[in-house]
Amino acid sequence: MPKAKASTLSLMAKLQDVLVSQKLLTLAQVQEVEQEAASGKRTFDAVLEERGLVKPAELARARAELFGMPYIDLTDRELKRDVVGLVPYELAENYQLVVFDRDENELKVALVNPGNYKATEAIEFMAREHGWKLSYSVTTAEGLQNAFKAYGS
């Protein structure tokens, strides 16, 4: 098994453990969702969402706990265009991330999937070029979509 796939599987197992430890899912529900995801060639997250077993914010909080990051709710937060625009929209959309705050040279970045190492590589490359220090949070896809509105304002 390729190493990347193995680490993805272990991350998923750890996320499932967090969901069970937070009493958001039972072990039986985890197994049912895994089977349904595998049989329908869908992701674990997609099945959770379709079945309404875990709210998006709960899943994001579980991911945040797994990665040792804070959770940030961006669903109703109005962001400044000049802050969000520090990262080009195409990059932000592709990697599902957004800069939501800035304090001098420190940027606060929200990610939907902190396990997407290509996303962190991309933003860290930009940070090195500009001399930024980064701190990460986890948000929901809905929060990210709300944040993307700042690109157009």
Description:
The chain is of the alpha+beta class and 153 residues long. It is built from 8 helices and 3 strands, in the order H-H-H-H-H-H-E-E-H-E-H. It has helices at residues 3-21, 27-40, 44-51, 56-67, 81-84, 89-95, 117-130, 141-148, and strands at 97-103, 106-111, 133-138. Strands 1-2-3 form a 3-stranded mixed beta sheet. A hairpin with a 2-residue loop joins strand 1 (97-103) and strand 2. Helix 1 crosses helix 4 (56-67). The N and C termini lie far apart (46 Å).
Structural class: alpha+beta
Low-pLDDT residue intervals, each spanning 5 or more residues: 1-6
Question: What is the strand arrangement across the widest sheet?
Answer: 1-2-3
Main beta sheet: strand number and arrangement? Answer: 3 strands, mixed
SS summary, helix count: 8
The beta-strand count equals 3
Strand residue content: 5-15%
What does the overall shape look like? elongated
Radius of gyration: 16 Å
Q: Look at the structure and give the mean pLDDT.
A: 90
H/E element sequence: HHHHHHEEHEH
